[in-house]
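Deliverable D4.2, example record:
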Amino acid sequence: MSTLALFAAPLCAAEGLPPPVKLALERAGITDGAVSLWVQAVDDKAPSLSLNADQPMNPASVMKLVTAFAAFERLGPAHTWSTQLASSATVSHDVLSGDLYIVGSGDPVLDQDRVSKLLRRLRGLGIERIAGDIVLDASVLRLPVHDPDAFDGRGLRPYNSGPYGLLMHYNTLQLALFPGRQASEGVTVIAEPPLAGVVIDNRLRTSSTGCDVWYRDLEAKLEPGHRLVLSGSLPAACGPRTWSAAPLPPEGYGTALVATLWSEAGGRVDGTVRSGITPLGTQTLLTHESPPLADIIRDMNKWSSNVIARQLLASLGAATPSVSPEASDMVAGGARVVAEGLAAVGLDARGLVIENGSGLSRIERISAATLGRMLLLAWQRPWMPEYISALPVAGVDGTARRRLRDSPASGYAHIKTGTLNGVRAIAGYVLDRHGRRYVVVMMVNHPEAAASAAAQDALLEWVWAGGV
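Output generated by the structure prediction step:
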């Protein structure tokens, strides 16, 4: 079926919401005007259900579907990022006689294990001491100043980290927490990975409360001298847990991590670990290739990683010739690439607003009609299997693992979810009980949006049951 055939039919007006959906919305106190819907079989020419489908709405993390579509379309599912170790110095008697450069490529998933592997391989080449500095080059991405506190004032939360040309371990410090056996005992904390220069001031105590929202009372604050103060309580009933923080900006995080990992590999450095630019004339010593884009998008969508989405959007701005190489804002460049890309394949991008590509935004907007038609196009693309398999499966895995868990529709919906204060959204694909597949989009922008989960689940069950 051609793109024109897909979109030639006019939008059908919804004669009414499915009764279970309407009832659930009424119970939540949500009016029809706050809801946007689109349902269409992948082999139909027009939607079978639509409501306010042309009205741009905040999609929350459902916006990651748009970022993923643009990344697959521009880069392809096999695209990789290459991080290099380079130097112009000579090696003699286990000593590199000058600076070592770690040259970033914008890799979204350069985690601790991969950085450690690169440095261990360097040791394997016979280099034990670096007589100069270790220089981290993040210049591949030209980015605006990022304020991690801007969204919700919680700048130490990893979801608020911004993109970076040499992003390491998602800019995240994982903290393994082990509560005591009794109330008021201390909680043991193990940093994974430890960061050179970051001091953890552990003031956590064990509580006797029940284990519901176990992280509710945990707080992290960064004090002068890179002192990370942990306070609050962890219920003993929860057992060991893993918590995360982003105590440093990406530049500082990278230098601290590399200093730690190089030391752990048995290496020494006479100078410092710092940021800088790789000069001309350096030679590549080692190269690390990232996993393919298809695997990265799976990580992004299954667990709704904001930092991966931000990184991909900036990478689109960096990798596209239409964006000026002098541009200082590759995030804005990436947003422009996405909008132009949707328009180029026949999608109506009017009303589309992209701030960072992750959905962690108060201003991002897209219509259900644009999302629905984009998902129909994705179904026709050669990378369709990778696109769909990256989505959480309702009742099974990812961020949708608790949705439809006790429903006969469990396992039949590949659905991206999105949640912000005042926003609740779903979008993806549902296979009905007769074997027919549908595109489903539902967005709710309303003060009581959090209460609309039941209505969204009712829509998924209605489609699965063949109510369309």
